[in-house]
Design brief:
By secondary structure, the chain is an alpha/beta fold. It has helices at residues 35-47, 56-59, 105-111, 121-126, 129-143, 146-166, 173-209, 233-239, 260-263, 266-284, 301-310, and strands at residues 2-10, 13-19, 24-28, 66-75, 78-87, 92-97, 100-101, 114-117, 215-220, 250-255, 258-259, 289-292, 315-319, 331-334. The structure holds adenosine-5'-triphosphate and magnesium ion.
């Protein structure tokens, strides 16, 4: 859990210090008061970047040259001090954990994973397959940290292979295809198992949210059981890049069997993703942080109660105001 957070020149916070409780933390404030900015800083501590996809230099308080986020985080009784700083002029970003520099953002995520739900969830349904792969990769990594290494290895293989394809080095490609194929089978199995395992809870929780309709997700692997990556060698040589394998996998969300992308309302899309996250929490009970940016804007009274009842981890929720339910929160921060 995050115990303390201090912000220096981050977005609209010139210098601020926050303490949080292990439980539900509510951030209240008017439009533009900095609720999403604070959630963004919390998410940054976990993911090493902005969940709003903002460039680091745009996170710096206007007129300044750097930002710094410091956090004290406790996990399994161990205290971690995380520090992130970014300097505009040198474009230098430093992330340290207990004063030790870390090189891969994924190191942060494996110590300190998070689930983030915001109005960007609609993009998960509407956007390209990459958006869906990202959230599913993240969830699998929370329960299986070595999944991140598999993805890292896969991307390395892909990089090497693409360089060879581009150079038309036909004879050197086959060993890379073998490696890619082996990693594709491994990653694909973990993705398939994950979707199978979560589907029952997803169906039940979405039923509570979507007025008696059920959402589902299907996994559409790029590579068929019967195909091998080498079967596509001539096509890939022609293209000059790798076009088959888990980097081309897709996932699709459905409500009552109908494509959510085409038919669901904006609110229903957010509810679908939110229930997917809650299904994950309820099924795996992971030790992760939960960040929910204005979830109540799309929920009715019963939906709010369902969400609150599922949140057992340290959670950060923003809302413009809160008349009821205040007793559900261990800490209320007014911005
Ligand atoms: N780099 C920056 N430097 C200074 N201020 C910034 C920077 N980036 C954004 N802001 C300001 O931060 C404010 C937005 O904060 P934020 O998005 O956190 O608001 P919010 O409380 O979530 O509002 P809403 O309820 O509308 O979602 C805006 O007023 C914006 O002008
Ligand atoms: Mg906001």
């Amino acid at each position: 859990m995050i115990k303390e957070l201090s912000l220096l020149n981050f977005r609209n916070f010139s210098q601020s210090f926050f303490t949080f409780e292990n439980g539900k933390n509510l951030l209240i404030g008017t439009n533009g008061s900095g609720k999403t900015n604070l959630l963004e800083a919390i998410g940054y501590i976990s993911q090493g970047k902005s969940f709003r996809k903002t460039l680091d230099r745009d996170l710096i308080l206007w007129g300044q040259n750097f930002f710094k986020i410091e956090a004290k985080v406790e996990k399994n009784g161990i205290l971690y001090e995380i520090e992130v700083s970014y300097e505009k002029t040198t474009n230098e970003k430093r992330i340290t954990v207990n004063k030790k520099l870390i090189e891969r953002y994924s190191t942060l995520f494996s110590i300190f994973p998070s689930i983030i739900s915001s109005d960007r969830d609609q993009d998960v349904i509407d956007g390209p397959p990459l958006e869906r792969r990202k959230i599913i990769n993240r969830l699998i990594s929370i329960i299986n940290p070595s999944f991140l290494n598999l993805l890292f290895d896969y991307n390395k293989v892909l990089e090497n292979k693409n360089a060879l394809l581009k150079a038309k080095a036909t004879h050197e490609i086959s060993p890379w295809n073998q490696k890619q194929e082996q990693l594709t089978r491994e990653i694909s199995k973990l993705r398939r198992d994950f979707i199978n395992e979560i589907s029952e809870d997803f169906s039940q929780i979405s039923f509570e949210f979507l007025n008696g309709r059920r959402a589902s997700i299907s996994y559409i692997p790029s590579l068929d059981e019967k195909d091998t990556i080498n079967d596509f060698l001539s096509e890939e040589l022609e293209l000059g890049f790798s076009n088959h394998g888990v980097h081309r996998d897709n996932f699709e969300f459905f409500i009552e069997g109908k494509h959510a992308r085409t038919f669901a309302s904006e609110g229903e899309k957010r509810l679908t993703i939110l229930s997917f996250y809650l299904a994950f929490l309820s099924h795996y009970k992971p030790d992760s942080l939960i960040i929910l940016d204005e979830p109540f804007s799309v929920l009715d009274k019963r939906g709010i109660e369902v969400v609150l009842s599922h949140l057992r981890n340290q959670t950060f929720i923003s809302a413009p105001y809160m008349d009821s339910y205040k007793e559900n929160f261990q800490r209320i921060i007014e911005l």
